[in-house]
Design brief:
Helix 1 crosses helix 5 and helix 5 crosses helix 6. By secondary structure, the protein is α/β, with parallel strands linked by helices. It has six helices and five strands. It has a five-stranded parallel β-sheet with strand order 3-2-1-4-5, sandwiched between helices. The protein has a single domain, classed as Rossmann fold (3-Layer(aba) Sandwich), CATH 3.40.50. The N and C termini lie far apart (about 40 Å).
C-alpha cells in the first residue's frame, strides 16, 4: 500500500494514525468532516496538525445533515453526559450512522484520487455502544467499498487489535504532540476532564504509563 485517504478528527487516535502512516512511508491525504458536531473546534486542531506534517488536508462540510442526526448530544441540544464510556448514559453520544457517512465520503475522495485505501483509527477499545465501531460493521463496509467503483479501494484499520492505551504508548514513541490534539465532546476552552472521551483519554495515558500533557479544566 502506497497511498491513502485518512479520516482525521484532531483527536488522539486519528492523529496517532497520521504519524503511523507517515512512519510507514505511506503517502497520506487527510480528511476531516464537519457534521455540525458541538466540538467542531477539533477541525482546527486537525488542520493545524496536518499543516505541520505537510499532509494535504480537506474538510467535508456535511452540516446540511445536522438536523437529520440531531438525536445525539454531539449534534443536538442534549447535555453531554459525564462519566465512563461503559456507563449506559453514554449512548446519548451516539451520532446515527456517523462512521458510514464519513467513510463513504472518504471513499469517494479516495476513488477520485485513485489511492489504495481509506484509513481510519478504529481500535480494539472502541465500545459496543457505538455499533459502527464494531469489527463486523467495518468488515461489511470494507467489502462494499471494494465493489463501489472500477478502481478498487479498501478499508485499512491497522489499530483494530490495539487498545487506546496502546495508542497512547505508540503515539509517544512516534513523537505525537498530544497536547495539540482535541478529544473533549464539550468543545470548551479546555478539556472538561469529565465527559466519556476525556475520561477515556486520561485512562489511556495512565494505563500506558506515559505522561498526559492534556490541560483539563
Amino acid at each position: 500500500m502506497q497511498n491513502v485517504v485518512s479520516l482525521t478528527s484532531g483527536g488522539m487516535d486519528s492523529t496517532v494514525l497520521l504519524y503511523f502512516l507517515r512512519d510507514q512511508g505511506i503517502q497520506v491525504n487527510a480528511l476531516a468532516v464537519n457534521y455540525g458536531q458541538r466540538h467542531r473546534k477539533e477541525l482546527e486542531f486537525s488542520k493545524a496538525l496536518c499543516e505541520d506534517l505537510g499532509v494535504p488536508f480537506e474538510i467535508a462540510d456535511l452540516t446540511g445533515i445536522t438536523r437529520l442526526i440531531s438525536s445525539s448530544s454531539q449534534t443536538g441540544d442534549a447535555e453531554v453526559p459525564e462519566g465512563h464510556y461503559a456507563d449506559e448514559n453514554m449512548k446519548l453520544t451516539v451520532v446515527p450512522n456517523r462512521n458510514m457517512i464519513m467513510l463513504a465520503v472518504a471513499a469517494g475522495w479516495a476513488i477520485n484520487l485513485k489511492v489504495d485505501a481509506v484509513a481510519y483509527a478504529a481500535h480494539g477499545g472502541d465500545h459496543t455502544i457505538y455499533p459502527d465501531c464494531r469489527p463486523e460493521f467495518a468488515d461489511a463496509l470494507d467489502a462494499t467499498i471494494q465493489i463501489a467503483d472500477w478502481h478498487k479501494v479498501s478499508l485499512y484499520r491497522p489499530f483494530v487489535t490495539k487498545t487506546k492505551a496502546d495508542l497512547a504508548k505508540l503515539g509517544t514513541d512516534l513523537g505525537v504532540p498530544f497536547e495539540r490534539t482535541w478529544s473533549c465532546y464539550k468543545g470548551l476552552e479546555k478539556h472538561c476532564g469529565k465527559c466519556g472521551t476525556c475520561v477515556e483519554r486520561r485512562e489511556a495515558f495512565e494505563l500506558a504509563g506515559v505522561p498526559d500533557p492534556t490541560e483539563y479544566a
